[in-house]
Amino acid sequence: MRKVSIQQIKPGNKLAKPILQENGNVLLGAGVELNERFIERLRSLGIDMLFVEDEFTEDLEPPEAIQEATRQKAVNAIYQTTANLKDQSFMRGRTVAPEMGRTLKQVFGEIMNDVIVRDDVMVNLTNIHVTDAYLYQHAVNVAILSGIIGIAKGFNRQQLEELGIGALLFDIGMTKVPAELINKDGPLTPAEKALVERHTTEGFDILRKQHDISLLSAHCALQHHERFDGSGYPRGLKQDEIHLYAQIVGIADVYDALTSPRPHRKRHTPSEAIEFLFASGSTYFDYELVKLFCKHISVYPVATTVLLNTGQIGVVSANNSLAVHRPTVRIVEEADGSRPSSVYEIDLKNEVSILIVKEL
What we know:
Elements: E1 2-5, E2 19-20, E3 26-28, H1 36-44, E4 49-52, H2 68-87, H3 100-116, E5 128-129, H4 134-152, H5 157-168, H6 179-182, H7 190-197, H8 199-207, H9 215-223, H10 244-258, H11 270-279, H12 287-294, E6 305-308, E7 313-318, E8 328-333, E9 345-347, E10 356-359
Parallel strand pairs: 2-5
Antiparallel strand pairs: 1-4, 2-3, 6-7, 6-10, 7-8, 8-9
Keywords: Hydrolase
Protein name: Metal dependent phosphohydrolase
Organism: Paenibacillus curdlanolyticus YK9
């Protein structure tokens, strides 16, 4: 399979990976043949990239961070938790969601079980979902990324659970923000920005009242927008004043937000997001934590379609952990636009004059 922009999709292309709804269920499954109506509908749902079948890359399977069933279960748990919080009555300022912590602890445990058995430590987030699913899929992605960094930091089981639940629920305060602001196509007014920024304190207020959720987990909601140099919100905390869990969640949040399509901008590539994180080290984030985080991110994930400086188009077929910017690329189109007569690959680690110009 290969991952391509929806702009390059043509009628007759077949999906190689499913497209997910907001509750984690499948909207369109693998093997579905796309027609003009499907393609236009997917565009209207905010989908900008798809995995499609291709004869030159039929053996390529991007390694999933977690199993599809685990992701669907996790997304559905976040979806149901959010729906319950929206529906319940707020009596005397108290918000109680019975067994929220136990449910999310079980979900995060299954995520970690999938992560631990992986052969590699380079993360590739491959899920494709409709725009309305962003908050739920984003929470799961942040939990995956945070958990991997927690493992790299040597956290014990209790610490991983506290971090994981905090990561799954860090944006729960967004349930109090009007949907039209979350999905606004354009800059926010100062009043709208202030309302959105309240999601950190709103989220903390929700989580601190749950009897089975650690206060440290709740601080992931409160502090994930604090920045290393004191420029963040809501309290302008600096450096070690920001809890380590919240620092980890903050980095994971920014990375996944940058690499996801949003109503007001196109998605950034993983390499662009990593460049941003390195540039923000010791300013927005602790530089050592950024380095640790980026060690576990695939810069050019398997199945990514790329343009080379030779004019050839290829699909990433393998990553090299010792040279993450120099993957192995399978050529699917020559510089003159023709298809290769047979399958062949270029290992960019060895071909130093050949460069990736951009992702397609």
